[in-house]
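Figure 2 data, in text form.
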Amino acid sequence: MSFEQFSFDARIASGIRSAGYTAPTPIQLDAIPYVLAGRDLLGLAQTGTGKTAAFVLPILQNLLNGSSRQPRVLILAPTRELAEQINTTIQDLGKQTRIRSMTIYGGVGKSPQIAGLRRGTDIVVACPGRLLDLMGDRAVDLSRIEVLVLDEADRMCDMGFLPDVRRILSQLPTQRQTLFFSATMPEDIRKLAGEILKKPASVQIGLIAPAKTVSHALYPVASGLKKRLLLATLAQTATGRVLVFTRTKHRARSLAEDLIREGYRAVALQGNMAQNRRQQAIDGFRSGQYDILVATDIASRGIDVTEVSHVINYDIPDTVDAYTHRIGRTGRAEQEGDAFTFVSPEDEPMVRDIERVLGMVLERRYLENFNYGAPIPAASEERRPPRPGRGQPSRRPAQSSNAPRKSSTAKPVPAHNGSKQAETSNATVSDSSTDDKVRRRRFRRRNPRSQA
């Protein structure tokens, strides 16, 4: 099968070749004909299956007919990172056309966005909050929208955007094509889809679960030993790019700093960062400037980096859906990936929920030569040591992502066997608010720009 069967315009076909696409993925095969025909569509697919191109390509084809200074296509996305990823795909695939696109999201100034709208654009890729702001300012005209795309609709629901989405929908033309994409289908999203889709075609690729190319493993460990286990795992495992997920913004920042001090090319991605710094982190991770990205769940959508060999859940996510989307950052484009999750005894209820959705018992592993009985560091020991001097090296050469991969030396153990760490199962790190304040004050004094 090839993209030639869709009879795309030569300019779009050129973009497909330039992007390196050789054959359509299953969701592209199923979805593109419906979108070309103007049908409403409900698309359910695992992350990393190529669903962005599944709607971008036919939209570009249909936009070649006619023109307008006002937006003709509105794509709603839950995060700035996903909005930028979608817009990049539009520009890559449509660079031989004269179709214009732009992004709208918060965290940056309104003026450039308003100026872009005044110059005219065909496609707007927006996050709901800032789009509503501009609608309230009468800076955007959505009266000529022909196509509405809701991407990662379940994530928008998780982030509390559903009321905003409904307000935006009330201002759009009723006669339009609506494309609704989601990796999971909770009840609120199923209800919304039923309200806004008209006789939709349905496309579902596989189970709503992580891709089959991902290998899963649990690493039981006391909470206070997670940092040591992460360093030992990275030292013993051949990796390409590594995405580490934490539950809090503070932990993402401090863990990235710890990895840098250990010589790794690491960077944090969390919600308190200014948009330009967030984009620099993503671009640096994608280009290979950084080998490790330490992120909160803000990054579980919208990072399209095929070279991510490992996702490590430093903290287990709060929901099964969040696990699905975190793990979806590896094993993309039919490549193999590994998902490691550090679990403490209190995480077992969530582990059982994940296993039920995956339909299998996840392998428990213990890392060889790791001291699970080591004393757990006190909070005071976690404080950051002085930074390296100006002339002192702070990084070591990164391991080549092309190096042959070898298996971790972690030894598999029978499922639900946690006896080896019984001595430490009830120990946790004291995370006093006083220590947090001290660390934050020290960080601000040493990094005044971080408050931007």
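Caption note: The chain has two domains: 3-205, 214-443.
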